Metallo-beta-lactamase domain-containing protein (Caenimonas koreensis DSM 17982), 368 residues
Amino acid sequence: MSQRIKTTFLVLAGIAALLAIATWATFQLPVFGAGPGAALMERMRASKQFHGGRFENTPPYVSDLSWSGELKSWLGDEVREPTFEVPVERLARNALARPVAPGLRARWLGHASVLVEVDGVRILTDPVLSQRVSPFQFVGPARLHAAPIGLEDLKNIDAVVISHDHFDHLDMATVQALGRGGTHFYVGLGIGAHIESWGVPAAQVHDMDWWESAQVGNVTFHCAPARHYSGRKSMDNSTLWSSWMIKGPNHSVYFSGDTGYAGHFKQVRERLGAPELAMIKVGAYGDTWETIHMTPESAVQAHRDLGAGTLLPVHWGTFNLAYHAWAEPMVRSVAAAKAQGVQIVTPRPGENVEVGVPFVNRAWYVKG
């Protein structure tokens, strides 16, 4: 081997070593969360969904991604961002200072974040108020509309439910702001380690397995199945994904989280009853993703499986995370709901939906 080849080899090896060190150092940043301690790990291993050192779907999810197909889809000509300013209904700065009124109401804050009030308890689902869903706020998918409420006004939230630990569902800055206000977090097994590593006291963090329940005031939080995957650093399925049924003495609401269509919707109804309001994921889908990211038509069928009263579509319109047109998830959801006789609401971000009070749907997502 000539000296020149040896020198080139050493330079390339040095570059590779530096990249490896940089990658390792990056993954040590707080935003990537933390692994479970011994006690939590023991609970994870005891879960029926834990196999071979990771959580698995039943049956297991087998990726059929084709990189050439994904590239072709990525290069498509769909209009994936709104061509007009999305109408956002801002919450008043003191909106959360008032006591929670009786009843059931929800405000979609964008993507999978919904502010829900159930029988006197104020809840947030997958709260993400940062500008980007990324480990870094200088790069990554950015918001396509303003958040209806700022972090500084996010107060008096009794509880948060987290469906899984991906960056568009678990946001460190939002979690920290809520944690400082005393909010309790109800999460799938393993996710609590992330939240505690961000400074939230352990007493406010509750890791749960499917079909376990917890009480907040007179409202019960049921952790329920979903069909997805997890991981902050890779698709390692290191934490448990879930859906949530929230039931008070008078009202009930279901939150699907990210999921493919499967039999768990019927299981939820059989074990926990039919919810009045179902907040179901309708956006971010693709031809090869359906087993873990269902289509709008499947979301409407899931709503029917649940026997739910009103469908509130979520997980669309806020971040550009898929290959479909921006408004397509809502357009297809409304059409499928009409075809199947499902009651659907189409609120603007921040607009209030109150169960039992008539809601006037407007196609605000279609420019015309």
